[in-house]
Amino acid sequence: MAAAAAAAAAVAAAAVAAVPAAGPGSAALAAAGAAAAGAVEVPVSQAELLARELGIPQGKAAWILTNQPVLGSFPAAALRRRLESLASDFPWTTAELSVMIMRHPLLLQTQPQRLQEQLGVLGRALGLEQPHAARVAAKQPALLGAELADMEARLRQLASALNVSSDRARAIAAGQPVTLLMHEQQLQQRLRAMAEALEVSKHQAAALVCACPRLIAASPATLGAKLQVLRQCLLGTPEEVTQAVLHMPGVLEYSAASLESRVSGLKKLLGGAKALRTLLAEEPSLLTRSPSDVSAKLEALGTMLGLEQPQVLRLVLRRPSLLTTSTHAVRGSWSALSVWRFSPGFKAELIAEHPLLLRLSAREVHGRCRWLRGLMLRSAHMHATLRRVPPTLLGAILLHLPAAWERLEYIAEAGHEGSMPLMDAVQASSARFRAQFPEFDKWRSFSCGSQQGQVGV
Questions:
Q1: Contacts 24+ apart (CB under 8 A), 79-86
Q2: How many Å is the maximal CA-CA distance in the chain?
Q3: How far is CA 257 from the centre of its chain?
Q4: What is the pLDDT of residue 12?
């Protein structure tokens, strides 16, 4: 035993002595350690080349080369050509390529033609073109060695476990390729553990995976911890928080610390836990917004409408989606809101009563205002009537316009102005409107036929 120990020590000493005198770089140290363990010694030049081309530390480059001993015999020029081939022939970024090689060093030994074939197999299994298949392979390099029949079998298992179609299963697998490496038993175990951690049914757990495929690879303990953080921060019932998660599973991709910070910030901005729960009941995606983003939206709304913070909060409580709409889009809709030159106060009052108008695109708002302006120009009665209505009623007309414009057009063209209050004409049921204006359907048919004839000409 003593003789064996002495021999091992001698080998290790010889390996250390064999390290080139170029300096104590990490690649040299890794090569020395590998030689002491009986692996092939890695030339420093190759490790440096691999590290430089992939943007990784020399120690990791040395590990890749020692993990695949045959690469140690590659001339530096051949290794460079192989890296250049991978970078030019396949749509991987340098970062993706470095991660792939670190996770799957055999990639450096795979001939480009063979790699093309492997990507083709992956693409056929998932119904993807090669560039998209390459993106999937970058997430899970082990799939490059999988057989088509095996992947098709895993896809059938995935579709059965999640109760989805084959096409949907392919999309989920593309979002989380690790599912193609799971046996049916593993998949079922994951879903059960996930359901238990989140206190939902297995069917609901499957729905979460369908909406956010990456969750299937998350630790059940971590998912459970995130749920508890949300419950503690939101101070709601377990059912309220669970419903928010079921409607916006993406929140489970944040860390527990990030969720705690995010919810705390939103509570301060929006008036406490109760107000936040009220907003989340209608707009669960609010949990994916950063407090700084929400703060900017509140400030922009206050500036546009000339409202103080309490008034802005009351507005967004009525229409929470304003906090998930881009500020640029809201400003565009606000600017487009002009049937005639509205005063800032008139426009603010109109929006305070009908905030949904700011959720319409600027183009849609402009189109409705333009049509109403055209109606006013064609009918003196409509012009006088609309200029007298308060902003709350004008906002209601703009919101109902897609369903009411034919009625207003008919009343103006048929000379029935004043025969029915304007808001009644806009909001009346179809039966009531037709009962008061029996000729409406005939006019409508004639009007549509006339328009079609003009288009035909």
A1: 79/46, 79/49, 79/50, 79/108, 80/49, 80/53, 82/108, 83/50, 83/53, 83/54, 83/108, 85/112, 86/112, 86/115
A2: 116
A3: 21
A4: 34
pLDDT of the residue at 71: 67
The more confidently predicted of residues 428 and 39 is 428
Give dist(CA 249, CA 209) in Å, integer: 8
Q: Rounded to whole angstroms, what are the CA distances from 64 to 47, 282, 414? A: 9, 51, 83
Three-state SS sequence of 402-450: HHHHHHHHHHHHCCCCCCCCHHHHHHCCHHHHHHHCCCHHHHHHHHHHH
Interval 92-145: pLDDT, tens = 777 777 777 777 777 777 777 888 888 889 999 999 988 888 888 888 888 887
pLDDT in tens, 223-265: 999 999 999 988 878 888 888 899 889 889 999 999 999 999 9
Average pLDDT rounded to a whole number, residues 287-297 = 90
211 pLDDT exceeds 80? yes
Q: Which residue has the tokens 């849609």?
A: 364
Confidence band (pLDDT; 50, 70, 90) for 89? low
Three-state DSSP state, 10: helix
User: How big is the chain by its Cα radius of gyration, in Å?
Assistant: 33
CB of 330 closer than 8 Å to CB of 358: yes
The stretches of 176-237 forming alpha helices (DSSP H) are 184-198, 202-211, 220-234
Helix (H, G, I), strand (E, B) or coil at 375: helix
Quote the CA–CA distance of 358 and 337 in Å, as a whole number: 9
Q: CA nearest 227: which of 212, 202, 248, 210?
A: 248
Q: How many CB atoms lie under 10 A from the CB of residue 425?
A: 21
Domain boundaries, the chain: 325-447
Neighbours of 331 (CB within 10 A): 16
Q: Burial level of 363, CB count in 10 A (0-12/13-18/19+)? A: exposed
Q: pTM score > 0.70 for this model?
A: no
Question: How far is Cα 292 from Cα 89, in angstroms, rounded to an integer?
Answer: 42
Record the tokens describing residue 204, joined without a space: 């609901």
Closest CA relative to residue 371, chosen from 390, 398, 353, 407: 398
